[in-house]
Amino acid sequence: MEKIGKRFEGKVAIVTASTQGIGFSIAERLGLEGASVVISSRKQNNVDEAVEKLKARGIEVLGVVCHVSNAQQRKNLIDKTVQKYGKIDVIVSNAAANPSVDVILETKESVLDKLWEINVKSSILLLKDAAPYLQKGSSVVFISSIGAYQPQSSMAMYGVTKTALLGLTKALASEMAPDTRVNCVAPGFVPTHFADFITKNDAVRKAIEERTLLNRLGTTEDMAAATAFLASDDASYITGETLVVAGGIPSRL
Ligand code: NAP
């Protein structure tokens, strides 16, 4: 981390679901590179704790409670950002839910709705609210998953919502060009709370490591580095793309 640059000096970045895990590391990375970061999640105490951690690292940060499927809280997230910083340069849409391990045809309708609502629809609605404030040269990054390419049976419908983000990336890249670039990161397996049920099982973890060319799980910092690249001007000629960050787990040619 000592050698990172300052690609986000003067920029304002919103990261959803960013009080722990991948979202937190993305906020930290963008902040260390000079961005004013706006972090959010469902629980006030998680927001407060994460704000303190980022401030302790010298990062300019605003924390706002935002359950991404709550319209009022989404609007408040954008309003508070604009009131404090006056504009938006980067949005990282990172929130997701995986409420069930049922196979698709046994998944309850309410669960199907929740998956669509949190993993896809909320991202679209947040961007609708943010659109008037997005600057020329701004950038959106969706967080998908390696499971977008080959949904695993224990999380198949979750995988399908992540596949939808690949299409959304293409469609919005076209719709928001040339002023805003839209890209996507597809993480492999990263030991976070979200992935506990996979990465804390020794046999499953070993099996994943064995089919990962780089022989290890990913880190939240790996995901943050890739996201920061796509959000930065280093990627100023890249839009509509998904970067797989999965240590070589097969995705597509
Ligand atoms: P995580 O460590 O469990 O963190 C989840 C964060 O999201 C927390 O800050 C949580 O805080 C917040 N959150 C949860 N539900 C929310 C909601 N409805 N609205 C707003 N905030 C919410 O998860 P993670 O592993 O970093 O996952 C982040 C993203 O990476 C997800 O899109 C996931 O699909 C993707 N991903 C993860 C992996 C992996 O192996 N970990 C692999 C592929 C893709 P509160 O509890 O306070 O809300």
Write up this protein.
- The protein has 253 residues and is of the alpha/beta class.
- The chain is 43% helix and 17% strand.
- It has a single domain (12-245), classed as NAD(P)-binding Rossmann-like Domain (Rossmann fold).
- The chain has eight helices and seven strands, in the order βαβαβαβαβαβαααβ.
- The protein has a seven-stranded parallel β-sheet with strand order 3-2-1-4-5-6-7, sandwiched between helices.
- The chain starts with 11 loop residues before the first strand and ends in an 8-residue tail after the last strand.
- The protein binds NADP nicotinamide-adenine-dinucleotide phosphate (NAP).
- NADP nicotinamide-adenine-dinucleotide phosphate is lined by residues 16-17, 19-23, 41-43, 46, 66-69, 94-96, 118, 143, 145, 187, 189-190, 192-195.
- Belongs to the short-chain dehydrogenases/reductases (SDR) family.
- It comes from Liquidambar formosana (Formosan gum).
- Pfam families: adh_short_C2.
- This is Tropinone reductase-like 3.
Give a quick precis of the structure.
This protein is α/β, with parallel strands linked by helices.
Put simply, the count of helices is: 8
SSE order: EHEHEHEHEHEHHHE
Mean pLDDT: 96
Strand order within the widest sheet?
3-2-1-4-5-6-7
